[in-house]
Design a protein that fits this description.
Elements (H helix, E strand, L loop, with lengths): L6 E2 L6 E2 L2 E4 L2 E4 H9 L7 H16 L1
Antiparallel strand pairs: 1-2, 3-4
The structure holds zinc ion.
InterPro entries: Sigma-G_inhibitor_Gin
Organism: Paenibacillus apiarius
Protein name: Sigma factor G inhibitor Gin
Length: 61
């Protein structure tokens, strides 16, 4: 049995094993799903962009 460390989602801060890791940054499944279906026109979009900016900055650093 593998013991996995519970990751914290960078978007919502939830601790869960259910999600994806992008460049060492963890995004939970629900946030990933939200982002996939979030339209640019959506009010939530700026929120995701704001949270993800850190991630992109990390990648481009
Ligand atoms: Zn999340």
């Amino acid at each position: 049995m593998e013991s996995q460390e519970t990751a914290h989602c960078i978007v919502c801060g939830e601790a869960t094993d259910d999600g994806i890791t992008v460049v060492n940054q963890f995004i939970c499944t629900s946030c990933e799903q939200e982002m996939v279906k979030t339209d640019v026109q959506d009010k939530k979009y700026p929120f995701f962009i704001h949270r993800l900016k850190r991630l992109w900055m990390h990648i481009n650093a």
